[in-house]
């Protein structure tokens, strides 16, 4: 018994100190994920949960990562039917004059929206970005205004855009966290990864000016699952990257600002992605555009309109944890009047466990609904009156 006491004491010390030692080791490991970057963040796309943070709200020049917002507004316009992939886009003198990375558009040259998007996503074309901005909004200035409006709509308080390209300009800045949220919103549109996830391609294929595009994001080729989103570099910003990768059901967004070299930037993004996929798992709950409920619309062509999810919804946990007993709660706006436009936010889906809110996500109108005509409203009134008096 006398010999067992020292061993028992040692065992108790190990047992008591192991959890704190493990926590300290985990903290140390995560602190090394992006130690060479000015700022960084790692989050899971569907839930928006942050898994790693380093100065993620520090305002810094985003360089060409600015084009994440440019592409977001292009994809929104496509989704709303305001433009189509096959529409022709004419290049102005101003768009063709852009310096920096470009696809060498000439004044008056026309490309389709699809080709322009290819030039932005793969080749980081400043000229293509301005041409698309003018096509959608009439001028780059107007488009930049819409970029800032969208940033405000997303609740991004540390972002200010002065151009569509990321070329250095006073008052043009963002943060790692804000950039991740922009990427989160962009990735709602599945079609975008067709462009951001392509390593190489061509423009002007059937001409003598065939132009080879190589993705500035080399991880698209060298890290399994990476399919976006945008690199950035200026002398002021250094090497930046907003990356997205998907494995199984889990999509991760990793952002790095201010790395000294492309190798450092890619290495730190790789560490963050490895950490996310090794330590966490997701439980998909709903797909985008899935019908969740319906809500009454006053004086609409139909009495009710379906509410659908505005984004994919998943729950994030550490590996080994489960999401049993998750409850769904729906909050709907009241007193809704026609007309209603597709995508208008009309409610909120809330997921809870043991009374704790795990996630909230907007519910939006499934489609447009115009006002009902006078005859329709009259028949509806008669029908309601008849039912009331039965």
Task: Give an overview in words.
Residues 280-371 form the Peptidase S11 D-Ala-D-Ala carboxypeptidase A C-terminal domain. It comes from Bacillus changyiensis. Pathway: Cell wall biogenesis; peptidoglycan biosynthesis. This protein is an alpha+beta fold. It has 11 helices and 16 strands. Strands 2-1-9-8-7 form a 5-stranded antiparallel β-sheet, sandwiched between helices. α2 (67-79) runs parallel beside α5 (126-137) and α2 (67-79) packs parallel to α7. The longest helix has 28 residues, at 4-31.
Explain briefly what this protein structure is:
By secondary structure, this protein is of the alpha+beta class.
